[in-house]
Amino acid sequence: MTASSDKPEPDKPGPDTPEPENKDAAETAAKPADESGDAKAADKAADKPADAAAETPADETPADKKPADAASDDKASDDKAGDKKAADEKAAEAKADAKPSLDKKSGDDAKASAGKRTAADTPPPGKGKGTAKTAAAAMPEAIKAIPVRHYGRWVSAVLVLGLLALLVNAFATANVNYSAIPDYLFNSTVVEGLGKTVLISVLAMVLGLVLGILLAVMRLSKNPVTSSVSWAYIWFFRGTPVYVQLLLWFNLALIFPYINLGFIYRDEMSDFMTPFMAALLGLGLNEAAYMSEIVRAGIQSVDEGQTEASHALGMNQGKTLRRIVLPQAMRVIVPPTGNEFINMLKTSSLAASAAQYLELLRSTSDIGQTTGATVEMLFLAATWYLILTSVFSVGQYYLERHYARGSLRSLPLTPWQKVKKNLATFSHRSPEGMSA
Questions:
Q1: Does pLDDT of 340 surpass 60?
Q2: 247 lies in which domain range?
Q3: Which PROSITE patterns does the annotation name (predicted)?
Q4: 40, 8 contact by CB (below 8 A)
Q5: Cα torsion for 52, 55, 58, 64, to the nearest 10°?
Q6: What is the pTM of this model?
């Protein structure tokens, strides 16, 4: 009796096995078998022993069959392990494919819920303009800024304009021959007096500037004698009116008949103290007292480290003052110096009456006395003084701008540059305005 007779053979489909009713049913039945790797592996393991048992010869003994059965069992286990690994890989791929679909479904659900919320929040159609009202309510209201009314400004402007109109009307209706002003504007006597005014102002300012620098250095000196003398000079000339000083210089011949400077100069005081010399000394020495304080303030504005650094480089005191301190102090010295020069132009008119110096005011006054147009000639003198101060103010502006280069990153625009910029802006805007 052989081993094949004892083991029952598995059922195999034969010719009498009924086929599925249709193809779809067969595919449906076969699909689960393909998706399950474990069932497939079990079927293969079951079929292989049956096939091996069917192919075993009848005359083989159980002892001869054992090695073959063991080999077939090992092969079946290897095939089962491989099929299980393939099934695990298929399951992982199916899980990865299913994740995007779940994410997509969750996204669709979120969109659907958002659509439901929007629909719930939106008022139902057919009930007026609910949507427009809701949108208008959601928009913030525009803030209407109401400007503050400054009634005081309007009142003050009206008062100033009223007073200005009264002043213009008063001079317009006054008994003044305004045509005489342009007639004598370039008269030879007036032009000569104008030249003398400029000359005495420039020379007196130069004298005051030089003496002012010297007095400032003396005032800052550690020598008590020079410091005291400088202080006394400033105290006297700043404490007395410049008109009184001019009178003193012009009448100095009454107490000093001669001027004796040794072998340098010796002459009568009346010949030496001319109206020009009296005006120059009176204006220049008085200006020196004010310029000394301006220069002293400019020198003290320079940091002491600059002086210490120059001394460390081997410079002496004079060279340090001339090349280090004063160039930096000019930024502080120039603005008040320009104001002092403009004031000097007007103060020079005092020399006309105090020292009998024929400057602008004296020239116009003489013409007014001879022609009878006294007030008109005073207006003429005021016109020339305004022209002089305007011209020198422009020069002062450019001088200040020059010395401000070391303290400003960008220099301000000059008046002419501002005019050109405004004209360029207007020319660019005008074509656009015409086209609009």
A1: yes
A2: 188-412
A3: ABC_TM1 (PS50928)
A4: no
A5: -50
A6: 0.60
